[in-house]
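User: Here's a chain of 136 residues. Predict its fold as tokens.
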Amino acid sequence: SPSTSTLAVVPSSDFNYVLQAGSIGHTTQFTHPELGCDWLGIAGTVFDGQGNAAEDLIVHVEGPDGFSIDALTGTKPEFGPAGYEVTLASSPIDTNLLYTVTLLDVFGNPISESYPVTTFDDCDRNLILVNFVWIQ
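Assistant: Prediction complete.
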């Protein structure tokens, strides 16, 4: 029989932030030109209800082998005024939904669902773009 998860699925209506249309995207990383293909990461930006930068929020990324990194929005302006970036690895790798991205408030409380992310062993897809937007 198919395995069932014991984790509760929280309805998205419980959270004010969701993925922006077009997220999750994959492209060639451009913020570390010296590294070229020797980098894999997640980056993006966050918009508030008025379409402005939502700074001072936390993007939390979890992955295999206890991987857990937080990035503050507004620290990587290359991706927008509320830009952030998280390095996953020193080379592109294939993973199938092993990483999750969650937006947290300044107190560490989730304000979005946890979104699973797939990565690719591909230099043209070593930057995963994940943007969040506020919904009413």
